Amino acid sequence: MKNHVAIISHDAGGAEILSSWLNHYDYSASVVVEGPAKKIFKEKCPNAEYLNLDEALIKCNWVLSGTGWESNFERKAISNAKNLGIKTVVFLDHWVNYIERFDENGSMILPDQIWVGDKEAERIAKNLFHTVPITLKSNPYFDDLRKKINEFERSTFEKNED
Length: 162
Known about the structure:
Radius of gyration: 17 Å
Structural class: alpha/beta
Number of strands: 9
Distance between the termini: 56 Å
Shape: globular
Largest sheet: 7 strands, parallel
Order of helices and strands: EHEHEHEHEHEEEHEH
Strand order of the largest sheet: 3-2-1-4-5-8-9
């Protein structure tokens, strides 16, 4: 079976994590973005395959999504994917508004799995979502930031050595 992921993103926080994830891992992927995520993905992943949601869902066998709470873009994508029998995973990028991130007019649109990038997010998610597996993952955006900081410190140290 194909291993192609559709990456769905609207909000900036999720876009930072998911675009870094795409750059870290060697997956065949289609990207579906709206809102603030468009600019972030275009800058960080200029060579990605950008499709609309229907095209991406036809190509993929799983979905990795952000979790905006002011837009229903990701919730609609998760709902559509689940209706097609496609595995859905979300990467939570905050410690707040977890219920609102999955609430669509009073109905909970929960993914098949939730990824979190730190222990506090894991604790909160496990307390709220008892029926969804919660997985602690390395946060690829934080990994990128740590790498940039280390490179900056190294270059600053080398300049001071001269």
